[in-house]
Amino acid sequence: MNSRIFMVFLSSALSVWGCETFVQVNPPIDQMVSKQVFSDEPTANAALNGLYSEVMNSNFFFLNGGLTIYGGLSAGELDNRVSSATREEFRTRTLQPTNSDNDYRLWRKGYSVIYLCNALLEGSQTASLDARLLDRIVGEALFMRALHYFYLTNLYGPVPLVVTTDAATNAMLARTPVADIYATIEEDLKRAEALLPDIYSVAFRAKPNRACAQALLARFYRHTNRWEEAYMYSDRLITSGEYALEQIPTVFEKESEETILQLYPVNDSFKATAEAQYFIPTEAASSLPTILISEQVLERFEPSDLRLTEWVGSKSYLDNTYHYPSKYNVRLGEEDRQEYNVLFRLAEQYLIRAEAAVHMDDLDGAVESLNAVRTRAGLEAIGRLSADQVLEALIAEKGREFFAEVGHGWLDLMHWGFVDDGLYPIPQYELDSNPFLYQNDGY
Q1: Separation CA 438–CA 443 (nearest Å)
Q2: Rounded to an integer, what distance in angstroms lies between the CA atom of residue 65 and that of residue 278?
């Protein structure tokens, strides 16, 4: 791992989430691990908010639209209307190690966030802060590190496991076996679950609490085929009473009761989510979407499916109709953001519980969980089916519910074994800089 990835510093424009608003502060620059950063509550909070600023400061990078676009292209959910050589490599699955989007927008952004997580964890070891604040800082850093490693490992396979800010060490790390990375993810999430509070620390569920760690644990156990644990965590969230499936038109509103975790879109130019800013065309007659929903996705929906009418936008021009994702509707927002970037929501937990129930021979329970998502979308409930039929219905439902959303489609194709060679290439720059790295097969 080249040390240039980790040269990420706090800027003077970091923000602190207040109870209701985003309050600007001026934390120290280039002192991420210094004792001064953790000397009092305001500077400690500023350092923590630097983590979220790094996640959200650039549109179409990793969690801020990047996984949605590049994962959606790889999964066949999206098409490029406007030519882009780098994006087209994702769509045609001909991704090259020299692809700059793969390098900068995914790999490097993922590791830049992990660096900040490690810096927070190291700084917290010598901090003299209120115990509850310190627990929350550590818990949030562990959660965010686990989330980024979950995606990096599923995109690239074995990746270097970076758990320190020491640049010399990190620059020469070899690729770590997936089993070891998964063990670290699980350990981080278990610690985060123990440390994070039940109550959200900011409005609109914009920073992780204990339920967020549980939601990622459910996803992690589902992905690793540990069905009893996946069922336990998803069921705990569904039955907690803290979350509820929203009506389709309001799922992505910032007040949605379905949201488990969403992040504040910090970009002051658009004041809106990266997805809305990129997918939705302007009102000008000739303004057309750059990226379209594929015919493959459109064909998934029955005419009565509310997700087709509410989450698929269209614009006609010169006798042609172009369809685009419209889960988010605010292209240019206001100072008081109307929509946030949703990362976890309850519908996923219903589908995780359904899939786990199938593998635990509880077909009635699986159908019940699946029908909760189907009927919310205006579809008829399905009756008792065989295990294979339930899984087939679940796969179809996941595709309708989570198209063009934080990489779900691409990771699902690999999870269900529909693609055998789905790993992205390690960026060529990393291979050239670190002799201990090797390339994935096929590149």
Answers
A1: 10
A2: 9
Write the Ramachandran bin of 241: left for phi over 0, alpha for psi from -120 to 50, otherwise beta.
left
**Number of DSSP helices (H) and strands (E) in the chain, helices first:** 18, 8
Report helix, strand or coil for 243: coil
Cα 133 from chain centroid (whole Å): 25
Task: Please give the span between the terminal C-alpha atoms of the chain, in angstroms, as a whole number.
Answer: 19
What phi, psi does 102 have (nearest 5°)? -60, -40
Encode pLDDT of 56-78 as tens digits: 999 999 999 999 999 999 999 99
Is residue 235 pLDDT above 90, yes or no? yes
Helix, strand, or coil (residue 389): helix
How would you write 103-172 as a 3-class SS string?
HHHHHHHHHHHHHHHHHHHHHHCCCCCCHHHHHHHHHHHHHHHHHHHHHHHHHHCCCCCCCCCCHHHHHC
Token pair belonging to 416:
């269900």
Write out pLDDT tens, residues 2-37: 433 333 333 333 333 333 332 232 333 334 445 566
Strand partners, 313: 324
Cα–Cα–Cα angle for 281, 282, 288, nearest 5°? Answer: 40
The two structure tokens encoding residue 369: 């969980």
Q: Global pTM?
A: 0.93
> What angle is formed at CA 215 by the lines to CA 212 and CA 221, rounded to 5 degrees?
140
Q: How do residues 247-270 score in pLDDT, each as one tens digit?
A: 999 999 999 999 999 999 998 989
Are the beta carbons of 322 and 292 closer than 8 angstroms?
yes
The secondary structure of residue 101, as a DSSP letter, is I
